[in-house]
């Protein structure tokens, strides 16, 4: 943050006070706090953060970083820099020593993920390790973590900051600055909470802008000019500064009404030498060395470089840095200069810069590959746009760089960066290139946890037919495709097709002695049994899958199998206490608690009526999920567990809101089975509260999306439809409810009891008191057999 942060700040007293007050409270309470400052470009966010940092000097260790435009591959590099500053030294060794002294191994593990060292231990630990590091460092001295331009950050980085700022214990103040588009990436960050706050930065008032103009003007302006600047700037100090520079250089005819327009005009009017230089610099990024500038400048401009730089600095379009390079005083100037380049020039300059970087770049490998790949890619893209013949060698070079950066991001489990890099690599790599199969496979694997099932399916299908793919990988791709089809569909395939694939794959993998593949095949069989209403079969398959996965060592398969077993134990006839015993034994597989299984365990405790224990488990599961699985989408499962628990606790309002939370990601991922089940359950709750219209919509949605082979969800959706019909259609309600009961699988006593209770309400509404009572009686017998104490209490209340 070397911009004009220390030039005198005008106004903003209230905003600064608010930041300082929150900071003071954070120090007193010793608990973390997250503040997000939102505002349009040039409005003064960075300036305000600079003033804030100055004002707390000595009371905290302030560490700062700025996110840069996509393509830089700097997700983890930025964290690396932050930790170095937090350790108080200037190199990684000192912070690593500090951490290792307090917790042996921690510094080394972080170095492995953040780049400077080799990967040590599973990258799953990384979220937790990073939180721990911030915790230990904040114990030395309170921390103020300032991250500017966070709207450029990859979503993994946002996940990390969200997780760390919410889960660490210790005095740490997180200040994030962003343009308003952050709201599209992270809506949650635009509302305040107990430990979070948002500050929208408004335009400066007229008086303040007038003051900015007077402070900055090097000569006295005629009052008419001053007035014009103040009016045009619309409270934006950057706009005011640029207007001032335009007036100072007598560029005053036809002043554009927008900041971006003004910048474009100013660049247009530069002399050819200045303009070429500014544009060349814009390709390289916000800062660049004089050597890079020299490479990028056109031959004929080189002798005049120094002179042109001087005049650009005078015009406040570029400035010198302490490290003998140059930088743009503001990102918007660079954007405007870049926009003014022709595509042909962009292609040429990106290529020249990439080659120079490759020769001389000293960034860590990951970053260098990503950056060089980005510039090569831009060279290709711009060549294509002007209709130049495609240059296969250049495309392959660009693709190779991006693929290698992408696969390293994947090994560090930086899913969003991996997805971005690999997708771009595949766009560039020519057909038949040897990197295509592995890049395709990695991208498919990354797409699944990110919830992009459609893309995963397409890639997996491609892979299972791609020439030159190893048969093991081909079968793994088929299985993965079938599994993903289970989540969204199975569109165009039947459950029988999927069963057939699972059996064939099981045959192949058992012949090949490939335990992990076998685990995956058996898991799929178990899932299909579960969907067909056979929880007992699903538990058995889950157990076999778990055994295979333990032999083969595949962590994901172990987690999945454990989930399958626990979920179906709960759904099946096994009494709750026995379920709890087995689920508890599953949770600690290899000493790594599985948060998804923990959520199911919480449900089981809720059934016994131990709600405190249930809620405590969920509270533990939430942060663990981010630590171990690193996938936000999975939080929907925890919300779902919470909804079931609150339903049993009789807190319908809490249950309704938790179901709503779960529904959004399920819908976004087109997860048919999950949408069906969640919206049916939500509809049943809403119908009980008399909100028939919304209940009906949800029931319709559930009926429309639920795949035919999902017996369990189908009966739920039918019951939801029965319960949400208007009172005038009682006959239809009775018929639908009876049909649902007839279809409930015998092996699912708890579900049957839930639905009988619903049926009894329809019967009561139809004045069939006798029938209603008998439905409830049967439900009671079933709940008793299952050991669902909580449901019994609710019924008797
Ligand atoms: N309150 C203020 N008083 C005086 N100058 C200011 C004030 N706020 C901002 N400026 C100046 O206006 C320019 C733009 O401000 P700044 O860089 O902080 O904007 P920003 O909101 O961070 O923009 P971006 O979204 O592009 O990062 C800078 O030169 C800054 O010094
Ligand atoms: Mg800024």
Distance between the termini: 62 Å
Q: Structural class of the secondary elements?
A: mainly alpha
CATH topology of the domain at 13-202: Rossmann fold
Extended strand count: 8
Class of the domain at 13-202 in CATH? Answer: Alpha Beta
What's the mean pLDDT score? 88
CATH architecture of the domain at 13-202: 3-Layer(aba) Sandwich
Strand order across the largest sheet: 2-3-4-1-5
User: Which spans have pLDDT < 50 for at least 5 consecutive residues?
Assistant: 1-5
Helical residues, percent: 55-70%
Which distinct ligands sit in these coordinates?
adenosine-5'-triphosphate, magnesium ion
Radius of gyration: 30 Å
Number of helical segments with 4 or more residues:
39
Strand content: under 5%
What's the CATH H-level superfamily name of the domain at 13-202?
P-loop containing nucleotide triphosphate hydrolases
Major sheet summary line: 5 strands, parallel
The 3D shape can be described as globular
Protein name: AAA ATPase-like protein
GO molecular function, one term: ATP binding
Pfam family, one: AAA_16
Keywords: ATP-binding, Nucleotide-binding
Write up what this structure looks like.
- By secondary structure, the protein is mainly α.
- Among the domains are: 13-202, Rossmann fold (3-Layer(aba) Sandwich), CATH 3.40.50.300; 670-796, Alpha Horseshoe (Serine Threonine Protein Phosphatase 5, Tetratricopeptide repeat).
- Helix content is 68%, strand content 5%.
- The chain has a five-stranded parallel beta sheet with strand order 2-3-4-1-5, with helices on both faces. Strands 6-8-7 form a three-stranded antiparallel beta sheet.
- Strand 3 (143-148), helix 7 (155-167) and strand 4 (172-178) form a beta-alpha-beta unit.
- The protein is globular and about 95 Å long.
- Residues 1-5 have low confidence and may be disordered.
- The protein binds adenosine-5'-triphosphate and magnesium ion.
- Magnesium ion is lined by residues 45-46, 148-149.
């Amino acid at each position: 943050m070397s911009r004009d942060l220390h030039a005198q700040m005008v106004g903003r007293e209230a905003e600064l006070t608010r930041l300082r007050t929150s900071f003071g409270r954070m120090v007193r309470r010793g608990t973390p706090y997250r503040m997000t400052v939102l505002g349009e470009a040039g409005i003064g966010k960075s300036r305000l953060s600079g003033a804030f940092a100055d004002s707390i000097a000595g009371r905290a260790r302030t560490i700062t970083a700025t996110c840069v435009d996509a393509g830089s591959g700097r997700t983890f590099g930025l964290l690396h820099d932050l930790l170095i500053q937090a350790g108080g030294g200037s190199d990684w060794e000192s912070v690593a020593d500090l951490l290792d002294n307090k917790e042996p191994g921690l510094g080394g593990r972080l170095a492995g993920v953040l780049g400077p060292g080799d990967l040590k231990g599973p990258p799953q630990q990384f979220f937790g390790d990073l939180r721990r590091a911030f915790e230990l460092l904040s114990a030395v001295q309170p921390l103020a973590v300032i991250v500017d331009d966070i709207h450029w950050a990859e979503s993994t980085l946002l996940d990390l900051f969200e997780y760390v700022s919410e889960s660490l214990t210790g005095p740490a103040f997180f200040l994030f600055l962003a343009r308003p588009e952050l709201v599209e990436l992270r809506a949650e960050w635009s509302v305040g909470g107990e430990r979070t706050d948002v500050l929208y930065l408004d335009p400066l008032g007229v008086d303040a802008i007038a003051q900015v103009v007077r402070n900055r003007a090097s000569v006295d302006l005629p009052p008419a000019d001053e007035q014009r600047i103040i009016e045009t700037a619309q409270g934006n100090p950057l706009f005011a500064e640029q207007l001032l520079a335009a007036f100072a250089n007598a560029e005053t005819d036809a002043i554009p009404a927008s900041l971006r327009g003004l910048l474009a005009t100013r660049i247009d009017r530069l002399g050819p030498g200045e303009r070429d230089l500014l544009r060349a610099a814009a390709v390289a990024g916000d800062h660049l060395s004089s050597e890079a500038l020299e490479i990028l400048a056109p031959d004929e401009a080189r002798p005049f470089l120094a002179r042109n730089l001087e005049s650009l600095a005078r015009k406040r379009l570029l400035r010198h840095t302490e490290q003998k390079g140059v930088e743009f005083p503001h990102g918007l100037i660079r954007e405007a200069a870049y926009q003014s380049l022709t595509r042909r020039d962009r292609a040429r300059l990106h290529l020249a810069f990439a080659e120079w970087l490759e020769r001389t770049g000293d960034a860590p490998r990951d970053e260098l590959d990503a950056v060089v790949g980005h510039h090569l890619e831009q060279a290709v893209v711009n060549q294509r746009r002007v209709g130049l013949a495609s240059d296969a060698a250049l495309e392959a070079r660009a693709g190779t760089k991006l693929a290698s950066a992408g696969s390293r991001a994947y090994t560090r489990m930086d899913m969003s960066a991996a997805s971005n890099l690999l997708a771009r690599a595949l766009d560039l790599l020519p057909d038949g290139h040897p990197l295509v199969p592995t890049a395709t496979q990695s991208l498919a694997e990354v797409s699944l946890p990110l919830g992009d099932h459609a893309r995963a399916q397409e890639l997996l299908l491609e892979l299972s037919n791609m020439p030159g793919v190893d048969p093991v990988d081909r079968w793994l791709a088929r299985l993965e495709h079938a599994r993903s089809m289970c989540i969204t569909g199975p569109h165009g395939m039947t459950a029988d097709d999927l069963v057939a694939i699972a059996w064939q794959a099981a045959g192949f993998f058992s012949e090949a002695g490939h335990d992990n593949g076998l685990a995956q095949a058996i898991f799929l069989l178990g899932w299909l049994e579960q969907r067909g209403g056979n929880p007992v079969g699903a538990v058995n398959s889950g157990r076999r899958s778990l055994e295979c996965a333990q032999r083969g060592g595949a962590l994901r398969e172990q987690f999945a199998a454990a989930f399958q077993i626990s979920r179906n134990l709960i759904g099946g006839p096994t009494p709750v206490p026995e379920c709890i015993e087995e689920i508890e034994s599953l949770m600690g597989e290899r000493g790594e608690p599985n948060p998804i299984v923990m959520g199911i365990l919480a449900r089981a405790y809720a059934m016994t009526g131990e709600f405190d224990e249930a809620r405590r488990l969920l509270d533990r599961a939430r942060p663990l999920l981010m630590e171990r699985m690193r996938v936000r989408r999975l939080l929907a499962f925890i919300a779902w567990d919470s909804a079931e628990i609150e339903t049993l606790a009789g807190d319908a309002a809490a249950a309704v809101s938790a179901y709503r939370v779960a529904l959004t990601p399920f819908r976004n991922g087109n997860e048919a089975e999950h949408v069906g089940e969640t919206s049916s359950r939500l509809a049943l709750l809403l119908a009980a509260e008399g909100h028939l219209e919304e209940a009906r919509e949800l029931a319709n949605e559930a009926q429309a999306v639920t795949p035919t082979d999902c017996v369990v969800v189908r009966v739920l959706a039918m019951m939801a439809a029965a319960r949400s019909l208007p009172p005038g259609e009682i006959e239809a309600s009775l018929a639908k409810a009876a049909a649902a009961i007839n279809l409930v699988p015998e092996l699912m006593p708890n579900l049957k009891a839930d639905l009988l209770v619903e049926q009894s309400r329809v019967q009561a509404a139809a004045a069939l008191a006798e029938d209603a009572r008998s439905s409830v009686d049967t439900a009671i017998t079933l709940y008793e057999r299952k050991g669902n104490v909580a449901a019994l209490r609710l019924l008797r209340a």
